[in-house]
TrEMBL record:
It is an enzyme of class 2 (transferase). Its EC number is 2.8.1.8. [4Fe-4S] cluster 1 binds at residues 49, 54, 60, 286. This is Lipoyl synthase. It comes from Hymenobacter saemangeumensis.
Length: 297
């Protein structure tokens, strides 16, 4: 009797969740968008709108606003969710604060959001450029309010003090995800260290803000625990939005969260002591950021 090989049935790969209709956005068009596009190009500026493939770029740029990214467009981190290029940064332009401030004035921006890549190779994490960008912007556009979305300073608290000393109205540092997913999502960051950064910012008397992406595999109880941790460390404002996979090399979406669930999470955040929660599938860190300036400290 001849033993025949056993043929195993093919197991189909699990289907990726299909992007729902509520995540569809219009392509950026219109004269206002074109004007911002021209200014960004002329002044050789980087925006997280482009580098981060933000789905709200058409809406925000169409309103004549943008989130500027300073300190180059190459990050020293390799977070598994982010579309910004990773590598060894070569750009360190001490004239950048002036150029950003001039562009904000030309654009007549009422509320500017400034963010940056991580610059772990710099002793001060780029803190002096951070401070100068805010100071110069305030000098040229004193009526403009500013939010700074600052990176993880890796417990360089002297650098943090400089970063938050320019006179900005809102200081944000994104947690990005819940504690259990940090090693997967932010392998070079630490959950407790980011909480400590927010705590120190609040103790310095500032309006604090953070953001978390949903749909990476977090459980509701884990999100509630993160909310409680943020409240305990002095957070005022939280943004919650849907994670979208920027390229095939990045983490896949584990789940698409419904608008109804986002509304529920907003109510939970407010119940737990947050002063303001911006929650929705297309919400990103700087979405409706002008509203956050009026949140009481």
């Amino acid at each position: 009797m001849i033993d025949l090989p056993v043929i195993q049935p093919e197991v189909a790969a699990p289907a990726r969740p299909r992007k729902p209709d509520w995540l569809r956005v219009k392509l950026p068009v219109g004269p206002e968008y074109a004007a911002v596009r021209r200014l960004v190009d002329e002044h050789k500026l980087h925006t997280i709108c482009e580098s981060g493939n933000c789905p709200n770029m058409g809406e925000c740029w169409g309103a004549g606003t943008a989130t500027f990214m300073i300190l180059g467009n190459i990050c020293t981190r390799s977070c598994s969710f982010c579309a910004v290029a990773t590598g060894r940064p070569t750009e360190y332009d001490l004239d950048e604060p002036r150029r950003v401030a001039e562009a904000i004035k030309l654009m007549k921006v009422k509320h500017a959001v400034i963010t940056s890549v991580n610059r772990d190779e710099l002793k001060d994490r780029g803190a002096s450029v951070w401070r100068d960008t805010v100071v110069f912007t305030k000098q040229l556009s004193p009526e403009t309010t500013i939010e700074t979305l600052i990176p993880d300073v890796k417990a360089n608290w002297e650098a943090l003090e400089v970063m938050i000393s320019g006179g900005q109205e809102v200081i944000s540092h994104n947690m990005e995800t819940v504690g259990s997913l940090y090693r997967l999502v932010r392998p070079q960051a630490k959950y407790d260290r980011s909480l400590e950064q927010i705590r120190r910012t609040k103790l310095a008397g500032h309006r604090t803000k953070s953001g978390i992406m949903l749909g990476l595999g977090e459980k509701p109880d884990e999100l509630y625990r993160a909310m409680d941790d943020l409240v305990a460390n002095g957070l005022d404002i939280l943004t919650l939005g849907q994670y979208l996979q920027p390229t095939k090399r990045h983490l896949e979406v584990a789940e698409f969260i419904t608008p109804e669930q986002f509304n529920h999470y907003r109510e939970e955040g407010l119940k737990r002591g947050l002063k303001y929660v911006e929650s929705g599938p297309l919400v990103r860190s700087s979405y409706h950021a002008e509203r956050h300036v009026n949140v009481p400290i």
